[in-house]
């Protein structure tokens, strides 16, 4: 799609217009590899290429925040070899992409308990976050060892500690107070949540934040996702009418 098409997508015609925040459950790497008689890691590698293409396309569209579900708190149940392959890919990706991200004004944030990936990866992530903190073109949020229920529990615990210490009045706790304790604090909520590979589940992803998100389930396997698929998803979103509980 041409740059002209990107501006067409941006122009609102009474529909929802351009989403500020797109969140994606990247699913189907394993099936992509299986269909080609390749090891699962080959699907993840191709998935990392799809990540690159999708980030570029999101920047081209002018999306403010792109959140990618790279590793769930349940993914530790996978064989050790696959977990190690995913960690290796992430490390490789960060080392290879941080220059381009930084040069293109992308700010990196991570949600989830990423320190469980060990000190080396945590340091790489901390450095990348620190280095890009002032960037404004787009925020890339990577969900790592992320689970929405765990995130909400951690936020509730922080509120309970604040209440016990007398820093907050329990009667004053509202949605905003809890929101400010989530890993996503200060980010706008996702407008469009996409899941690839034909599965129709949220799988513990952004359960609080996606309260009013438009959901889009596409059959494309994640390694086949990219610019064209993101443009199509954003066009679909643009035709929707959002009511946020009103009429
Ligand atoms: C789901 O496919 C995908 C994942 C669990 C991992 C996502 C990781 C990447 C796209 C690569 C690295 C990420 C970054 C940010 C560089 P699946 O394995 O569950 O596929 P299946 O359901 O077909 O088995």
From TrEMBL:
Gene: uppS
Function: Catalyzes the condensation of isopentenyl diphosphate (IPP) with allylic pyrophosphates generating different type of terpenoids.
Residues the record lists as binding Mg(2+): 27, 214
Cofactor dependency: Mg(2+)
Any one GO molecular-function label of the UniProt entry: ditrans,polycis-undecaprenyl-diphosphate synthase [(2E,6E)-farnesyl-diphosphate specific] activity
Pfam families: Prenyltransf (PF01255)
Signal sequence segment: none
Protein's name in the database: Isoprenyl transferase
InterPro entries, per database record: UPP_synth-like, UPP_synth-like_CS, UPP_synth-like_sf
């Amino acid at each position: 799609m041409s740059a002209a098409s990107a501006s067409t997508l941006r122009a609102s015609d009474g529909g929802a217009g351009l989403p500020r925040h797109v969140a994606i459950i990247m699913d189907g790497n394993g099936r992509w590899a299986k269909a080609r008689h390749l090891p699962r890691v080959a699907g993840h590698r191709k998935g990392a290429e799809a990540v690159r293409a999708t980030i570029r396309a999101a920047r081209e569209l002018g999306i403010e925040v792109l959140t990618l579900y790279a590793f769930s708190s349940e993914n530790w149940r996978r064989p050790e070899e696959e977990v190690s392959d995913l960690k290796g890919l992430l490390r490789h990706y960060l080392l290879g992409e941080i220059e381009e991200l930084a040069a293109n004004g992308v700010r990196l944030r991570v949600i989830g308990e990423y320190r469980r990936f060990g000190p080396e990866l945590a340091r790489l992530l901390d450095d990348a976050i620190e280095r890009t903190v002032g960037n404004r073109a787009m925020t890339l949020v990577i969900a790592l060892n992320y689970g929405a229920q765990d995130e909400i529990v951690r936020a509730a615990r922080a509120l309970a500690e604040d209440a016990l210490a007398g820093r907050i009045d329990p009667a004053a706790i509202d949605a905003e107070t809890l929101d400010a304790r989530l890993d996503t604090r200060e980010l706008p909520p996702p407008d469009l949540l996409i899941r690839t590979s034909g599965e129709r589940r949220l799988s513990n992803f952004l359960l609080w934040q996606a309260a009013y998100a438009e959901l889009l389930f596409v059959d494309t396997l994640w390694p086949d996702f990219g610019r064209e698929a993101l443009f199509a998803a954003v066009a679909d979103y643009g035709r929707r009418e959002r009511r946020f509980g009103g009429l």
